[in-house]
Amino acid sequence: MKDVSKPRKSYDTNYLRNIKDFFSNKKLHLPYIMATGVEVWWSLVYIYVPLFMIKNNLSDSSVALFFSLIIVPLVILENKVGNLSSKKGFRFFFVGGFLGLVLISLFLFFTSNIIYQLVLIVIGSVFVSFLEPIQDTFFFKQVLTSDEEKYYPLFSSSADLGGFLGKFVIAAFLLFLPNKYAYASMFFMMLFFVFMALRIPKNKK
């Protein structure tokens, strides 16, 4: 059988050099930051929201239903967003997606009813669908084909960084403040990613 795998270059095994080269490449900074932002949001949804549901005496089946519902917008919109990004550009979707999550976080902070909060988070998945389908595409548009295997594992570490940041920042807020401040922390973090997304050139496709 013919081996169809890509030949790996020798520098692929030089991990320290790869890390240095990756973070020295300014074109890769914004794709990494955008991908980190998506995972920050998911840290709220998958870690803290189920805890809030249980604290409000919702059943395990309610948690399972919630997890199913937040995926629906992603499934419906993934291909549409991917296709439209080539026309509208990455900036449009990253700014719109993170700005939508800023507004959702603000509404969550001022909403005390857990059911309304869950509805808002499901609506928030519509804005996540602006972000998640294009984060890898945005990365690959910035990197040479010959460097994809060198840099993609490092780019993928944005998932770990985003998850850690989201959990840590929210936990820091909740040490001293009521649960609703988890949403306040998310508001400020998503606002940061909006400002970062505004740095993407308008014609970047």
Topology (SSEs and partners):
Blueprint: H1 15-24, H2 29-55, H3 60-88, H4 90-109, H5 114-142, H6 148-174, H7 181-197
Describe what is shown at a glance.
It is built from 7 helices and no strands. The chain is mainly alpha-helical. The N and C termini lie far apart (38 Å).
Give a verbal description of the structure.
This protein has 205 residues and is mostly helical. The chain has one domain (15-197): MFS general substrate transporter like domains (Growth Hormone, Chain: A). Helix content is 78%, strand content 0%. It is built from seven helices and no strands. Helix 2 runs antiparallel to helix 3, helix 3 (60-88) runs antiparallel to helix 4 and helix 3 (60-88) runs parallel beside helix 5 (114-142). The model is unreliable at 7-11 (pLDDT under 50).
Q: At CATH's second level, what is the architecture? A: Up-down Bundle
Number of domains: 1
Q: What distance separates the N and C termini?
A: 38 Å
Quaternary state of the chains: single chain
Strand tally, please? 0
Q: Mind telling me the C-alpha Rg?
A: 19 Å
Shape annotation: globular
Helix content: over 70%
The CATH class = Mainly Alpha
Q: Which stretches of 5+ consecutive residues score pLDDT under 50?
A: 7-11
- CATH H-level homologous superfamily name: MFS general substrate transporter like domains
**Residue fraction in strands:** under 5%
Judged by helices, strands and strand pairing, the structural class is: mainly alpha
Helix-strand pattern:
HHHHHHH
Tally of DSSP helical segments = 7
Largest sheet: none
- CATH fold description: Growth Hormone, Chain: A
The residue-averaged pLDDT reads: 88
